[in-house]
Amino acid sequence: MTNMRIYHQSFTVLANLPPYAEAMAAHFTKVAAPGTEVVMHGMHRDTYQTNYPGNDIQFAYFQTLHSQQFVLGALAAEEQGFDAFALMTLPEPSLQDIRALVDIPVVGYGESAMLAASMLGQNIGVLLFITGMAPTVQRNAARMGMAERFIGAHPVGFGFNDVLAAYADPAPLLERFRASARALIAKGADVIIPGEAPLCMLLARGGVSEVDGVPIVDAIAATVKMAEMMVGLRRVTGVRPCRTGYFQAQPPRERVRELLEFYGISRIAGG
């Protein structure tokens, strides 16, 4: 019997990436607690010019634009009775804004991975296949108070198409990942986050949880577990998000809907 429902929001058009979507669904079943249902949602089918948003993610303004779909997803999650909203993308654009809009727990992939990593080692590193995203990851680490423990987001040495192809034959790419991880370990990392979710998913499928004794964080699992924990805390203690101050103040839902309609954003709901 389902006693917790988590609204998963991807930065990808999941229908365009069947191997990734199928692997993600299977992984959610594996890592979620009994009774937890993770319901997958992707971006609107017409969002990108290619199958993967890598070209867009490296530009801050495009992230801001695309993140309005996350806003719509969070509103839908709350209004449809979900227990939590999970933003399953490393850069987490508009994460703070979304937390100000809804009362259900909102967790992010990057933040969940960083918090888990902070309990597994001292010096946290990230390996990316979208290298243009590194400054965003650096800024987010500082926002979380992790700047002193974050040694940077570094290129993993291959791209998304390589990751997608490796779902059929993972062994060669897993070895390339291990080589990149060793280079990051040599720079001082004692815990590593595989940046983007498709890479994390590939490593999880391949059973890669450490390299030379250094833990590799399953950020997907960490995000699900963070959502479960926050829902659990809500249920047993009643704790809710802060609503004081500029960044946490909750705007009237009616006005939110009016502005989403005014800017033409509402038309892409349910993508």
Automatic annotation (TrEMBL):
InterPro entries the UniProt entry points to: Asp/Glu/hydantoin_racemase, Hydantoin_racemase-like, Iso_Racemase_Enz_sf
Residues spanning the membrane: none
GO molecular function annotations of the record: amino-acid racemase activity
Gene3D superfamilies: 3.40.50.12500
Highest taxon of source: Bacteria
Family stated for the protein in its record: Belongs to the HyuE racemase family.
UniProt protein name: Asp/Glu/hydantoin racemase
